[in-house]
Amino acid sequence: MSNQHAHSDISIHAIYVPEARHLPLRPDIVEKICESVSNIGLLQPIVVQPDERHDTFKLIAGRHRFEAIKRLKWDNIPATIVSGLDALDAEAAELSENLLRMELT
Fold first, then answer.
1. Please, what is the average pLDDT of the chain?
2. Which of 22, 81, 102, 103 could be 6's S-S partner, Cβ–Cβ 3.0 to 4.6 Å?
3. DSSP, res 31
């Protein structure tokens, strides 16, 4: 199956965070993102995968952005919706984005 991408604003209530995450949530990063989003908006959407069985979306990448948007009490969040990923591809996407962001200052 080939991967497909779409972009949409998604209700934050329709997104769940898998328990098995590779990096812990850092409250200091969430706070910095809150400040940035308040000043300039959310420039980078989160990445989610649809879970049709439950009519929800699994968060693949963007946990800190997602938590910041929840803290700011937004109803919706811009998201890239990626279909056609198996569990291993979803894990690789999460790791790839996090490793790339770790190098940014």
1. 83
2. 81
3. H
